[in-house]
Amino acid sequence: MNNHSGEPRALFPLPDGSIYPDALICSGVLPAELGGNPCPFSDSGQFPIPEPLDPSKPGYSIDKGKLGDLCPPCAKQQLGSLGHWQSHGGTQFPADLLPLRLFKCRMWFWVVVPGLYDERPGRNPDISGHDAIMGA
Predict the structure, then answer these.
(1) CB atoms within 10 A of CB 92
(2) What's the rounded Cα separation, in Å, for the pair 124 and 120?
(3) What are phi and psi of 102, to 5 degrees?
């Protein structure tokens, strides 16, 4: 079970239009396929912090973004902005989430990181709600 509190590190938009925080998905509380166990790609049941993409690191793929773009270590692929997928299959997502960069995680869920915008993939989302430039 995830005992982390505070703002979610990530949000998981589902095809039915519902949105779940990482505390429920990464901890294994909700996805039946995890059997109540934390996701094996999580950070102790919490969504891992996005890192700059580096082709010299294991798991690097051009599908995740460009060199220096921030990407969660558990991502399989980046899919552009969530807004690009608005109305896909009739699903409607909240307007404030639409500019966020959408990823597909290794468990095949869609995931967005609050503060990580598709138009600024190299900017670090700060948990306090302020963006910080990487390396600054």
Answers:
(1) 9
(2) 9
(3) -100, 135
pLDDT in tens, the chain (136 residues): 334 557 899 999 998 889 999 999 999 999 888 899 999 999 999 999 999 999 999 889 999 999 999 999 999 999 999 999 998 788 899 999 999 999 999 999 999 999 999 998 888 676 433 344 333 3
Residue at token pair 């109540």: 36
Place of tokens 């290794």: 106
Q: d(Cα 136, Cα 123) in Å, to the nearest integer?
A: 10
The residue among 134, 70, 126, 60 whose CA lies nearest residue 103 is 70
- Tell me if residue 105 falls in helix, strand or coil: strand
Six token digits for residue 54: 């580096």
Query: What pLDDT score does 126 carry?
Result: 62
105 contacts 72 by C-beta, under 8 angstroms? yes
In contact, 14 and 20? CB cutoff 8 Å? yes
**Alpha-helix runs per DSSP H in the chain:** 22-25
Q: 71: which strand partners?
A: 51
Task: Collapse the DSSP code of 2 into the 3-class scheme (helix H, G, I; strand E, B; otherwise coil) and give the result.
Answer: coil
